[in-house]
Description:
Layout lengths: L2 H11 L2 E6 L2 H4 L12 H4 L2 H4 L2 H6 L1 H16 L5 H10 L5 E6 L5 H5 L4 E3 L2 E8 L5 E3 L22 E5 L11 H10 L2 E5 L11 H7 L3 E6 L11 E4 L2 H9 L1
Parallel strand pairs: 1-2, 1-7, 2-3, 7-8, 8-9
Antiparallel strand pairs: 4-5, 4-6
Helix pairs in contact: 7-11, 9-10
Zinc ion binds next to loops.
Amino acid sequence: MNAFEQAREWIHAAGKVAVLTGAGISAESGIPTFRGPGGLWRERRPEDLATPQAFARDPDLVWQWYDWRRSVVASAEPNAGHRALAEFEQRKNVALTLVTQNVDGLHRRAGSHSILEIHGSIWTLRCTACGREWRDESVPLALPPLCICNAGLGSGQVRPGVVWFGEGLPADVWPSAENAAKTCDVFLVVGTSAVVYPAAGLIPIAKHAGARVVEVNVEATPMSARVDGVLQGRSAEILPELLR
Ligand code: BJW
Ligand code: ZN
């Protein structure tokens, strides 16, 4: 049996499957990844765009970048990889939890429901003055975005509802993600470089708890040597076959 057939067998025998996705699953929808060829961090420094300090220093710059990314995502469509996960969730004999590091919302647009967005959403805005959080899907946004408490013009600011470096993960979703990793039979890791923590830490958590861990990626990652199966290739090609 090859690695692909073995992984298929594990998945089809599983009662609980958890999936961790990263930017690679949206790559085939035309959304740039962070670290790969053409990746966002190849030409920009995360320190200038994706930290609370960067936002405090230059909120206009940060908002222009996020507004551009919102426009890229708005004109993209979910791909066969997203759809395969959404269809798999509909199966009666298996419970699927989808943990995503992606902020693009494409899993939801593909029809998935049980999604834990551990790095937040690019479509959520949050007021740093009053704490209010809301969805806004307008593209382009009127910048700077304003809150009903009037923040945005004066003291407080409205920020993207995403998790930047140095920030904790959302307390309402992170424990569920850890629990999914700890209790699944199969943990599928798709299109992530597995270098950002604590997200990447879900992989050893699942492994130590006894799950079969399967990685789908076009390249090897620091986790490849520690997983039970490596399926090298594009997620939009592998997932439909794997989850069929
Ligand atoms: C394909 C493909 C195809 C391409 N098919 N595959 C432990 C060790 C070291 C450091 C730390 C640690 N713990 C914490 C840290 C610090 C830091 C961190 O991890 N740093 C490392 C980078 C060194 N972590 C944090 O700061 C986190 N917060 C934290 O720890 O808080 C502590 C705290 C607790 C309590 C109170 C206060 C503080 C937060 C991390 C937040 C990350 N945020 C970002 C931006 C989100 C918003 C936005 O999008 O703008 O999240 S950074 C960016 O990286 C984004 C992603 O979600 C994340 C992961 O990237 P991902 O998805 O893996 O993408 P890539 O590009 O890296 O990889 C793509 C992969 O796809 C590649 O492997 C390709 O091969 C593959 N691929 N095409 C299949 N078609
Ligand atoms: Zn407010």
